[in-house]
């Protein structure tokens, strides 16, 4: 039954072998970075075995594995490729680990903007000017545009699962740097690869490269991202009328401690946490990245609070996703886990509604009943708060913070509007003559009617945004 998911899978056959099988299972899980399963037949629980102290831990267990290292020749070759490129972009994944300082230095030194994968959110500083954010659908405008115009993509510790969507939009030269050879060329034809730990690669690249003059492309990218951030800020700072999701994120940012943990559920909150969470270095985020399983937020938060009992933990979930697992509020109560649950109730499976809206089909199976999550929480012994007006948000989050600080779990049900965030993945770039032209995807126009870029921006309350070619033109980026 477990063969499909387990790297190690054994049934314990004798009571005496139990400690050894469990020990082996733990070792195999670490070795394979995967799942071990030990099946213990019921009757073994009734057998007495001799209580012999057992430990196989070794003094070398804490020693880090040796890591592959880029050679001078490889790094010089890549630096040459970068020199030949006009619009190079880094695509950085979670393999960057804690090397953000080195990456940010290299990005500035070589004038290469950084696009990140979702798992690298928080691993490259959100306020680093060269950080364009995430790409694809759960994305920032600048990341999609900058990526869409790149002629060289350098993936660093990135195993991007949505490559079929964004790596196929246009031709570019592709370089991959990874410490795992099995990742090479998985997502794009490989023009060059460097088998290396990211930190060791960055050290060498910093040593062997020279400071480049300001590049028009880098400047255009940075300004595009700056304007996008200003747009997001203006949305977050509204404080009247109905509650909107941006303001909920403003409040999360306001009360989040510097070492907070965020467990983010699947749905619009994935898009919105990438866009609006202003993550600090000490903070951590967990999402169901590859499988995108709804109902991840609350169990993720429970695991986070058990692993880090002294840290502040958020569960950020939509009403649909939360409904799948809300019975575990009782677990928060039972173990006194002071998790702050933030529920964004829009009475829709909004993430799917947006997909259906973009197809020529009628809505199907996406509307939800309004649930009184506050009352549900209270009935399970968790303090519940409900917010219906933007002006009441701050007080609600203050109350949640105080409750959590007093060691108790809390839930805030924010009744948000059904407003859709701007689908920046519909912005497409093409080269016409000697310049880039931006337009709205054919699929979107087919479903919603013909529209200009300006009309598209206006539809999402984003008239201050400009198409990327404006920035390219302003700084004289050459094709
Ligand atoms: C277990 C599971 N079922 C279905 C899906 C497909 N799916 C992805 S997002 C989503 C809607 C999420 O709705 P909600 O939690 O209300 O969040 P919203 O998008 O409305 O903010 C669905 C059905 C999924 N990812 N996982
Ligand atoms: Mg919803």
From TrEMBL:
Residues 75-204 form the Thiamine pyrophosphate enzyme central domain. Keywords: Pyruvate, Thiamine pyrophosphate. InterPro entries: DHS-like_NAD/FAD-binding_dom (IPR029035), POXB-like (IPR047211), THDP-binding (IPR029061), Thiamin_PyroP_enz_cen_dom (IPR012000), TPP-bd_CS (IPR000399), TPP_enzyme_TPP-bd (IPR011766), TPP_POXB-like (IPR047212). PROSITE patterns: TPP_ENZYMES (PS00187). Residues 265-413 form the Thiamine pyrophosphate enzyme TPP-binding domain. Belongs to the TPP enzyme family. This is Pyruvate oxidase. It comes from Ligilactobacillus acidipiscis DSM 15836. The lineage of its organism: Bacteria, Bacillati, Bacillota, Bacilli, Lactobacillales.
């Amino acid at each position: 039954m477990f063969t499909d998911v387990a790297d190690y899978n054994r049934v314990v056959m004798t009571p005496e072998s139990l400690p050894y099988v469990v020990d082996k299972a733990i070792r195999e899980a670490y070795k394979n970075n995967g799942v071990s399963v030990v099946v213990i037949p019921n009757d073994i629980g009734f057998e007495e075995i001799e209580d012999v102290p057992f430990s196989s831990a070794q003094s070398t267990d804490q020693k880090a594995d040796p890591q592959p290292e880029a050679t001078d020749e490889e790094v010089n070759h890549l630096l040459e490729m970068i020199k030949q490129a006009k619009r190079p972009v880094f695509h950085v994944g979670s393999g960057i680990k804690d090397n953000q300082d080195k990456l940010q230095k290299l990005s500035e030194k070589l004038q290469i903007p950084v696009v990140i994968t979702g798992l690298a959110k928080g691993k490259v500083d959100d306020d680093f000017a060269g950080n364009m954010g995430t790409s694809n659908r759960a994305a920032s405008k600048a990341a999609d545009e900058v990526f869409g115009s790149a002629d060289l993509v350098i993936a660093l510790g990135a195993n991007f699962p949505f490559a079929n969507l964004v790596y196929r939009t246009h031709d570019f030269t592709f370089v991959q740097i990874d410490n795992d050879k099995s990742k090479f060329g998985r997502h794009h034809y490989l023009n060059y690869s460097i088998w290396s730990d990211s930190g060791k690669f960055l050290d060498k690249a910093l040593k062997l490269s020279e400071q480049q003059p300001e590049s028009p492309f880098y400047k255009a990218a940075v300004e595009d991202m700056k304007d996008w951030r200003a747009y997001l800020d203006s949305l977050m700072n509204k404080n009247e009328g109905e509650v909107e999701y941006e303001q909920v994120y403003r409040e999360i940012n306001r009360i989040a401690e510097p070492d907070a943990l965020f467990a983010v559920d699947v749905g619009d909150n994935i898009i919105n946490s990438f866009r609006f969470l202003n993550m600090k270095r000490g903070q951590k985020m967990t999402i169901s990245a590859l499988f995108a399983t709804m109902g991840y937020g609350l169990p993720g938060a429970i695991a986070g609070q058990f692993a880090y009992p002294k840290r502040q933990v958020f569960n950020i979930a939509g009403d649909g996703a939360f409904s799948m697992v809300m019975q575990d509020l009782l677990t928060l109560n039972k173990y006194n886990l002071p998790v702050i649950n933030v529920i964004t109730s829009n009475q829709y499976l909004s993430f799917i509604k947006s997909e259906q809206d973009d197809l020529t089909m009628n809505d199907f199976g996406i509307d939800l009943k309004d649930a009184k999550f506050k009352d549900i929480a209270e009935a399970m012994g968790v303090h519940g708060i409900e917010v219906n007006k933007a002006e009441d948000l701050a007080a609600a989050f203050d109350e949640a913070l105080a409750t959590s600080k007093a060691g108790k779990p809390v839930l805030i049900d924010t009744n948000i509007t059904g407003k859709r965030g701007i689908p920046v993945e519909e912005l497409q770039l093409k080269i016409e003559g000697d310049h880039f032209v931006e337009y709205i995807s054919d699929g979107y126009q087919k479903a919603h009617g013909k529209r200009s870029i300006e009309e598209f921006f206006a539809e999402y309350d984003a008239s201050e945004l400009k198409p990327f070619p404006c920035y390219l033109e302003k700084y004289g980026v050459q094709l």
